[in-house]
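Retro notes (design track)

What went well: tokenization of the new backbones is finally stable.
What didn't: we kept losing track of which sequence belonged to which structure.
Fix going forward: every design gets posted as structure first, then sequence, in one message. First example under the new rule, 258 residues:
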């Protein structure tokens, strides 16, 4: 059952919460359709209509009641897209719960604060497991244990470089370039020092941890679902990241073949 008619102050408070929901989902890897469905489920329970405009780094929402007597409109700039599916799935689950049993605005805000405050994996944990994924890629491509060890070290160094450059607020695309160059330079150096020992597998797979899987998948799904603008922007973003990976790898290749 829907809520009673929304007052002007209540629609503004709801609008700010929905703006925050959408921006959080956008900044953490949600597809455009998932954001729309989650926002619409919540808005419907409060008897308001939500119009959304979503771009790569901004989220805009306009709310109006059934009589268009109360209208709220706001825009929020989102951070450079990352990936945190705990936040995306948490907001999505919250929207389903609200659709079944309407929540007061204070409860929605409390849940958003909880999701926003969820602890991230520690930096050593991320470095360890991403390094292991790099070693696994090497093993799947035919690399021997020593090559897998080199791939592990190269991936770990590359990720460390990316983390440090991001922490120093470098351009995100250049962070990817430096990470790809550092990882391929280390693995390429080992391959250069010990040729014909199978280390070329580590060299070829050392940059795979940087592949922008989520942006490219979201771009594809957005385009399929008719979200042409956001799909195109995400495709360009994914393509630029891929270009920077290739550029870093190419520079290392040029150094070792020069």
């Amino acid at each position: 059952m829907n809520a009673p008619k929304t007052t002007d102050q209540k629609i503004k408070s709801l609008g700010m919460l929905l703006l925050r929901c959408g921006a959080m989902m956008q900044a953490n890897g949600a597809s455009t359709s998932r954001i729309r469905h989650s926002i619409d489920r919540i808005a419907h329970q409060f008897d308001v209509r939500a119009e959304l405009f979503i771009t790569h780094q901004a989220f805009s929402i306009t709310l109006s009641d059934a009589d268009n007597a109360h209208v709220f409109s706001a825009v929020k700039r989102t951070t450079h897209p990352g990936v945190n599916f705990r936040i995306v799935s948490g907001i999505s689950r919250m929207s389903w719960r609200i659709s079944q049993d309407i929540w007061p605005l204070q409860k929605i805000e409390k849940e958003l604060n909880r999701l926003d405050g969820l602890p991230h994996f520690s930096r050593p944990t991320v470095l360890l497991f991403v390094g292991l994924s790099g070693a696994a890629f090497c093993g799947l491509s035919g690399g021997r244990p020593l090559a897998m060890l080199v791939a592990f070290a190269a991936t770990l160094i590359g990720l460390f470089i990316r983390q440090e450059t991001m922490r120093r607020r470098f351009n995100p695309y250049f962070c990817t370039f430096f990470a790809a160059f550092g990882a391929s330079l280390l693995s390429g150096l080992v391959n250069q020092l010990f040729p014909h020992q199978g280390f070329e597998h580590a060299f070829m797979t050392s940059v795979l941890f940087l592949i922008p899987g989520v942006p490219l998948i979201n771009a594809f799904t957005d385009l399929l679902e008719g979200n042409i603008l956001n799909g195109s922007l995400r495709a360009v973003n994914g393509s630029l990241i891929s270009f920077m990976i290739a550029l870093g790898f190419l520079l290392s290749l040029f150094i070792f073949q020069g």
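Added context from the reviewer: The mean pLDDT is 91.
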